[in-house]
Amino acid sequence: MQKEFYLLTLAIIVIAGLNYAGKLEQQDAEIASAEYASMVCLGRETSQQFGWPNFRNLEINCEEIN
């Protein structure tokens, strides 16, 4: 009985950990996407003197960012 309890507790901890890690990964992806968009807009505003070119060929609306 006690062995099953420990296995169930371990399974719950593993599932919770994977869920938390997935949320962190999603947050990192959202931050990276926002950074990419702001850098592309900076490149457009400064005639590519600063910022990045849109090398991913994404549609980025700089009016929404600023």
Question: How does this model look, in words?
Answer:
There is one protein chain. With about 70 residues, the protein is mainly alpha-helical. The protein has a domain at about 25-65. Helix content is about 75%, strand content about 0%. The protein has two helices and no strands. The chain is rod-shaped, with a radius of gyration of 21 Å. The mean pLDDT is about 95.
Notable characteristics:
mainly alpha, 73% helix, 66 residues
- Uncertain segments are none
Report the helical percentage. Answer: over 70%
How many separate helices?
A: 2
Distance between the termini: 60 Å
In N-to-C order, the SSE pattern is HH
Shape by Cα distribution: rod-shaped
- What class, by secondary structure content? mainly alpha
Main sheet, how many strands, which sense, barrel? none
Radius of gyration: 21 Å
Give the mean pLDDT.
93
Q: Could you tell me the number of beta strands?
A: 0
Q: Into which percentage range does the β-strand content fall?
A: under 5%
